[in-house]
């Protein structure tokens, strides 16, 4: 066996797993330490005056700005709380368009006018910092000579303390903007979209309940991931560089026995999960569910629902925590959507709904007629929004890594459709069949609606092939990738639903001006939306070829790769939508598009170069070494008077190996030529060449390498195999 592989396996087998955790808080009630590292309401109440506490609470709910004096008091209280917990530094914590988080640490320590050491933190430092804006993806919003970027405090998401290697840092969630105020992050558009949706939802909501004053979007994400031993991780350049395996023959046993899903959690993995949960709970992340997923070595955790902005922050923070805690356990987290060929990919299902200040979920059917009519109004408006902007929603989850996942192994297809289940399908059909709707029909339909089962009990069933499914009292957006920042699809959802609610309200008001009764006007518009949304509703198998053909007949977009999907971001329709909603300007949209396109190109470039290096530096030398041994064997056997017929196996192996080597050489040369040609073209054409021309060649090289893995002596093969990556713990 190759010494690198041997060392990796031996280090795993020799490791004292009892030292890998979990650590601390074991047996304690979660409630005893939950949120202990969060500057939440309890900490604020303790460290602030009642006047400032009330003002900050009102600001959190209303979005109003704080005065400079109040900001100074908040900063002083935050500093006192943090220093009482041993914090020495603070950081504005933000989410640039890299897809992960960023932070620049500054110390509370400074020198006063007498050169005496003091700790200081004021409202200005709380409210704003200036990281280098040119070094983050900006899509042309910033250049190297226009380096200023600003982070600005988001008081709606609580500050928290990060602990690492004995040090503690106060992290303050912020937005990230250019000198002229344009968004260079995911948070600012999300906050704007939430405001836009809320204003539209309140107007429609007040048709049914006059005391609705606020509407929050709620989000419950489900994070899927793989875990492998760090020794195996470091033995694979492709995992190290790209997060996925670029080569690797499928193991004889994979997930076909379905024995991993919901199975007993391995002891070592349980230790990691417990530590992750403990640290998450300290930071106020309400994770509640953990289990084995379908793929060997694949797992999932999920929290309770939260307000969307906080939920997005918590998911971004969680992904950082996962990496850090995995290292403690000598593991590595793979968040890539498709790290292993032929094994389930990883998603991040986004469960989206709307809740009012009166405690009502606007997507919960309830049991009484009035509530059901309210539910139906919001329900069909969401479906109509998805029908109208399905291409944009698809673009919001587009990435090089998610392209590998969509459309197979229980991941939804790239065609956006909506699954609502048999019960609600029947209800919508019954309503739509009313060709004439009058006051009598309103009464009949309301009576019909009162008989809807309580769908919170999951009477809607499940459709694993649906990218957008109603699951009782929420919509589950299943096509979001596991590496992604949830803010991108959530911003799109908020904006398209907000725009559709505005349309709903406008049309109902038009009918009322014509003398139509309110309930009748609402029901007419519900029926219109049902008819207009019919094409996007689909209850069947989203993986089937028949559905692709049917979707094409219905006019539904099918964009399986990122370069085809992304132009929806900068279409005239999207520019108009986001501009009227005041969520993203045309310049900001173009910047986001450029960043995503460049990210796609760079990731494909890194993958293809990594594949080339692995082949030339490792695969070919190992294969030639094995070839030479076979050739030597043939010479020795001939010297012992064996004829060629008796040596047919050796000759066959040599020929098969040589055939794959020739195939690999041709593929690597093609990859180089494609990259060279692609980078002479505009970015959009370059991305298309990578998607259409480069990826198939990479797959051809992979097939050839995987066949060599089957042929070459196991002792000579340089990289950890799938059987080791997926099953060695």
Structural features:
six-stranded mixed sheet, Four Helix Bundle (Hemerythrin (Met), subunit A), Creatine Kinase, Chain A, domain 2, 729 residues, 17 strands, single chain, alpha+beta, 13% strand, 25 helices, 3 domains, Ubiquitin-like (UB roll), nine-stranded mixed sheet
The average pLDDT is 88
- Please indicate the count of domains: 3
Given the C-alpha coordinates, what overall shape results? globular
* Biggest beta sheet summary: 9 strands, mixed
Rg over C-alpha atoms, rounded to the nearest angstrom: 29 Å
**Secondary-structure content class:** alpha+beta
Figure out the total of helices: 25
CATH topology-level fold name of the largest domain: Creatine Kinase, Chain A, domain 2
Strand content: 5-15%
Q: What gap, in angstroms, lies between the N and C termini?
A: 19 Å
Question: What CATH architecture of the largest domain would you give?
Answer: 2-Layer Sandwich
Low-confidence stretches: 455-460
List how many beta strands DSSP finds: 17
CATH C-level category of the largest domain = Alpha Beta
Helix content: 40-55%
CATH superfamily of the largest domain: Glutamine synthetase/guanido kinase, catalytic domain
Oligomer: single chain
What would you say this structure looks like, in words?
This protein is an alpha+beta fold and 729 residues long. It folds into three domains: 152 residues, Roll (Ubiquitin-like (UB roll)), CATH 3.10.20; 380 residues, 2-Layer Sandwich (Creatine Kinase, Chain A, domain 2); 129 residues, Up-down Bundle (Four Helix Bundle (Hemerythrin (Met), subunit A)), CATH 1.20.120.1560. Strands 9, 10, 11, 12, 13, 14, 15, 16 and 17 form a nine-stranded mixed sheet that branches. The longest helix is centred in the last third of the chain and has 54 residues.
């Amino acid at each position: 066996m190759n010494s690198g592989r041997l060392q990796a396996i031996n280090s795993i087998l020799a490791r004292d797993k009892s030292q890998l955790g979990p650590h601390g808080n074991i047996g304690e009630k979660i409630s005893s330490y939950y949120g202990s590292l969060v500057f939440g309401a309890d900490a604020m109440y303790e460290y602030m005056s009642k006047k400032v506490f009330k003002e900050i609470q009102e600001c959190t709910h209303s979005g109003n700005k704080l005065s400079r004096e109040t900001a100074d008091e908040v900063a002083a209280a935050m500093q006192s709380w943090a220093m009482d917990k041993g914090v020495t530094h603070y950081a504005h914590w933000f989410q640039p368009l890299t897809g992960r988080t960023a932070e620049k640490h500054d110390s509370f320590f400074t020198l006063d006018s007498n050169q005496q050491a003091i700790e200081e933190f004021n409202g200005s430092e709380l409210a704003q910092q200036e990281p280098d804006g040119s070094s983050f993806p900006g899509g042309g919003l910033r250049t190297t000579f226009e380096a200023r970027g600003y982070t600005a405090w988001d008081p709606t998401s609580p500050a928290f303390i990060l602990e690492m290697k004995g040090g503690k840092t106060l992290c303050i969630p912020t937005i990230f903007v250019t000198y002229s105020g344009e968004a260079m992050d995911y948070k600012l558009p999300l906050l704007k979209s939430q405001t836009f949706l809320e204003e539209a939802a309140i107007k429609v909501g007040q048709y049914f309940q006059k005391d609705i004053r606020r509407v929050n979007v709620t989000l419950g994400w489900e994070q899927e991931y793989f875990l492998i031993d760090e020794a195996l991780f470091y033995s694979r350049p492709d995992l190290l560089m790209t997060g996925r395996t670029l080569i690797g023959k499928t193991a004889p046993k994979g997930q076909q026995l379905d024995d991993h899903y919901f199975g007993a959690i391995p002891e070592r993995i349980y230790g990691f999960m417990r530590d992750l949960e403990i640290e998450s709970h300290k930071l106020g992340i309400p994770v509640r569910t953990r289990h084995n997923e379908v793929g060997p070595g694949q797992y999932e955790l999920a929290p309770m629902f939260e307000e969307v902005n906080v939920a997005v922050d918590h998911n971004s923070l969680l992904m950082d925590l996962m990496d850090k805690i995995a290292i403690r356990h000598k593991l590595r987290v793979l968040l890539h959507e498709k790290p292993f060929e032929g094994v389930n990919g990883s998603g991040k299902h986004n469960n989206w709904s709307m809740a009012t200040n009166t405690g009502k979920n606007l997507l919960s059917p309830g049991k009484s007629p009035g509530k059901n009519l309210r539910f139906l109004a919001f329900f069909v408006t969401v479906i109509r929004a998805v029908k109208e902007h399905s291409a944009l929603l698809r673009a919001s989850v587009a990435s090089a890594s998610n392209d590998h996942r969509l459309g197979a192994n229980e991941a939804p297809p790239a065609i956006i459709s909506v699954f609502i289940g048999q019960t609600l399908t029947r209800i919508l059909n019954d309503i739509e069949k009313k060709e004439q709707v009058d006051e009598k029909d309103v009464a009949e339909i309301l009576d019909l609606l009162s008989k809807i089962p309580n769908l919170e009990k999951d009477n809607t069933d499940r459709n694993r092939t649906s990218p957008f499914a109603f699951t009782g009292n929420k919509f589950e957006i299943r096509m979001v990738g596991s590496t992604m920042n949830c803010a991108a699809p959530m911003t799109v959802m908020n904006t398209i639903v907000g725009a559709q609610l505005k349309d709903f309200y406008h049309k109902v008001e038009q009918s009322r001006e014509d003398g139509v009764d309110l309930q009748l006007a609402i029901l007419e518009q519900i029926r219109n939306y049902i008819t207009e949304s019919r094409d996007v509703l689909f209850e069947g198998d989203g993986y089937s070829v028949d559905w692709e053909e049917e979707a094409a007949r219905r006019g539904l977009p099918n964009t399986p790769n990122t370069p085809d999907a992304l132009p929806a971001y900068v279409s005239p329709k999207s520019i108009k939508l986001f501009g009227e909603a005041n969520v993203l300007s045309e310049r900001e949209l173009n910047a986001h598009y450029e960043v995503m396109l460049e990210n796609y190109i760079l990731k494909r470039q890194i993958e293809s170069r990594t594949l080339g290096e692995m082949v030339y530096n490792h695969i070919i030398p190992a294969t030639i070494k094995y070839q030479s041994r076979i050739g030597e064997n043939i010479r020795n056997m001939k010297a012992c008077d064996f004829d060629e017929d008796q040596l047919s196996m050796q000759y066959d192996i040599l020929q098969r190996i040589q055939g794959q080597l020739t195939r690999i050489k041709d593929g690597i040369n093609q990859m180089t030529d494609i990259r060279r040609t692609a980078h002479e073209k505009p970015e959009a054409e370059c991305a298309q060449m990578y998607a259409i021309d480069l990826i198939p060649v990479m797959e051809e090289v992979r097939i050839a390498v995987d066949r060599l893995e089957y042929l070459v002596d196991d002792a000579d093969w340089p990289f950890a195999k799938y059987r080791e990556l997926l099953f060695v713990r």
